[in-house]
Amino acid sequence: KSSFLAVKDMVREAIVDKFDVPIRGGTIRIADLGCSVGPNTFYTMQTIVDAILLKLKKLTSCDQVDGVEFQGFFNDQFGNDFNLLINSIPFDRTYCVAAVPGSFYSRLFPRASIHCFNSSVSLHWLSKSPDGVANKGRILYYGGGPDILNAYIAQFRLDMMAFLSGRAEELVTGGLLILQFLCRPKCMAPDAARYDIVISFVEPVLREFVME
Known about the structure:
The chain is an alpha/beta fold. The chain is elongated, with a radius of gyration of 19 Å. It has a five-stranded parallel sheet. α2 runs parallel beside α3. The protein has a single domain (3-202), classed as Vaccinia Virus protein VP39 (Rossmann fold), CATH 3.40.50.150. β4 (114-120), α5 and β5 form a beta-alpha-beta unit. The protein is built from six helices and five strands; from the N terminus they run ααβαβαββαβα. Pfam families: Methyltransf_7 (PF03492). GO terms for molecular function: methyltransferase activity.
């Protein structure tokens, strides 16, 4: 939630300025891609819904928007059974809820069906480890040297191409794709220890989980 709070106003401003879908009643579909496992994702969804409502009120010059419903899709990997998500559904939400399992590096929705996508700090997880890379079984490239780093960069490019191609087909004309990334200062090397410190803590936990 804290990461989204830091950019909440920017997200609201982007929706009010850039969301350009003509709505004359009907359903607005919003998809949150990746890490949809707990209550924080509902906060993100409600923020987007409220911003779109604000946009519609400005377009119609009305304080009340009638005839418009919202559907929120929450996506995560197949291993997520979505029990935590379903048990955390807020009673005061203003949208319908649906869980969508599967990798966002492939198509998830019908063509031209989603009005707004959001992906918050999820795209740094690659679809797989790069092929032909001997990295001592590790999931991060820190300390692996230039060859390992370049292999991970190449895999990231392939994943981003797949991600953006899927969203391009699924997004309606005038819709909006909101992406939030983990970033590093320009002065920090791509494989700097501080940049990968979070992943280095998570790695042994994931390895133990996989072995079980």
